[in-house]
Amino acid sequence: MSVKAFKLVCAVEREMLMGDKAHINIECIECCGKNLYIGTNDCFIYHFLLDEKISTAGKTTFAATKQLHKYLGFKKSVSELKAASALTRLLVLCDNTITLVNMLNLEPVPTGARIKGAVTFTLNENPVSTDPFCVEVCIISVKRRTIQMFVVFEDRVQIVKEVFTPEQPYAVAVDGHYLCLALTTQYIILNYDTGSSQDLFPYCSDERRPIVKRIGRQEFLLAGPGGLGMFATVDGISQRAPVHWSENVIGAALCFPYVVALDEEFITVHSMLDQQQKQTLPFKEGHILQDFEGRVIVATNKGVYILVPLPLEKQIQDLLASHRVEEALVLAKGARRNIPKEKFQVMYKRILQQAGFIQFAQLQFLEAKELFR
User: pTM value?
Assistant: First the structure.
């Protein structure tokens, strides 16, 4: 049964990005605070400022103001963008090279520092280094079966480690010293410091796109066999039941307590608390779905949209109004980590009371008694 957990709101319309140039496609996005960056297939980066407005009726809209755009000088697409806000740097992958550019004016750093030979890259959100003025970057190298770790400073880069993998890697996520890798036939956890590895489960990269996503300290979300979204810790175990996706999931993101997935026709929302599918939003031609500091963004080739979560209290009240007491209580307990303690206790008592009255009206007196207690 459905819950209205998110609303889909347009952030950047086609005309703002490309005007009448129909050949321009969005290849990648990055969002950092109010800054939205878009990389295109004709080697441009666009910088927008996003302004979120909430009307008196509670409706959310976004106004995107274009700051500037910059041509990188290649005849290739901009493949990936990652912001390192502490350094005011944007890491840009284009033509197998990661270039450092200034986040504000999009100019390359004067030293020309860059990382060459990268197929794809990710940042370590749980860094090993204690230096706040550097970021740790993990790349899948153009060298076969090779992962490289770099430390990136404001104007220079430094290689830290080169790791060889048993098969060719296609996707990677990092947490501390741990790499979660999608290889040709399986997912593995690899500790790049000790060299120890742990097999997770088989996976065929020829059949569909692998998904490897860090969702918290020492925990990852993976696209498993049979259309399952699987959770795995660095110890190679799963502490949560899997969620049932479609077979052809393109991207996944986390917005607690929900896992959001994108396929060719829909955005689906599953609860991490009871693994049930809660919402389905029609969305055709989507090819990017990512979360940035808790904000979930989806994009087609021509436009950028934001999934705005409805307040958890509103979702709980909607469930109670539909007499879905069990789901409301599960969501209320799950909301504990998102709401200040005092406010949560007041809200939770009120929800238990409402739930008790619903059970009482349905003549479920024992259950009502427990809730009233």
Answer: 0.86
